[in-house]
Model the fold of this input.
Amino acid sequence: MKKPTEVIKADPAGIARAAALLAEGALVALPTETVYGLGADARNGRAVAAIYAAKGRPSFNPLIVHVADAEAARRYVAWNDWAEILASAFWPGPLTLVLPLREGHGLSSLVTAGLDSLAVRVPAHPAARALLRAFGGPIAAPSANPSGRISPTTAEHVLAGLKDKIAAVLDDGPCTVGLESTIVGLTCAQPELLRAGGLPHEALEAALGQKLSIADGAEVIAPGQLASHYAPAARVRLNAKGSVGDEALLGFGPMDCDLNLSERGDLTEAAANLFDHLHRLDAMGRPIAVAVVPDNGLGAAINDRLRRAAAPREE
Ligand code: TXA
Ligand code: MG
Done:
């Protein structure tokens, strides 16, 4: 029988406990500034396999490896000039870089699902950084939700989906960004945007001094992009002018609604609220209508997640 999931406070004793569990090969959910991740030692194949099992995830989905700093990242991937520019500008932060795997990397092959590239990220969250330092190794971590469900932005969301399927959750309150990291592919001649996320692509383009090409989706490069990946259980209708029938309305900007992403019409605030509000509306058991959200800045990533939430279900 599985032991109950420990809820661990993010104080020094808690960080040490979480690091010890990871070292034993156990699964520990951890806060990052984007969403909570379901962490395991990226070098330990059994621990990584346990992530897929706990999430019920299709096994071809490669995972992001979290490291303490760019120097640690360079142990696992072949670095290049684009990586240097983006890492100096945005790490630690909500940016994931996909780079060619380096020989002798020592990571479980399950982490990359057999690809010859690796997604790496240096998170900015103080508890994630403290845990990476205490553990002293690479932590593989997808978002800490059952496969096909909304990403968790609080420890309560993690427990709602994965209670007693994982050893522990390190609880440090709500995530500030609330959207997954932006993913940039650096394995081709030009940088490619693989997933819109918490770092607006305008900021990336400013640092790169050029436009980012957007992966066309012809190839499943980031399989997490499955259309219905972020689906709540309830039906979701987008660009609603108001609610129809018993729909619960998720608003944006000043309006009459059940929950508002941002009454002030602030996209950063809306991103931070997005998954929490979807969780809360989903719990009401009514269909969900969502008001128009502008598509500039973080709005692009918010609308991407909303379209996935509204897509016809694949499972
Ligand atoms: O903010 C985040 O990125 C969160 C926190 C926990 O770091 N993590 C997260 O992980 O969103 P996950 O597993 O839910 O999404 C990872 C995405 C998937 O779409 C996956 O396909 C893509 O990264 N990915 C991972 N490795 C890749 C690779 N080598 N090439 C292309 N895409 C990759
Ligand atoms: Mg995810």
Remarks:
- The longest helix spans residues 267-283.
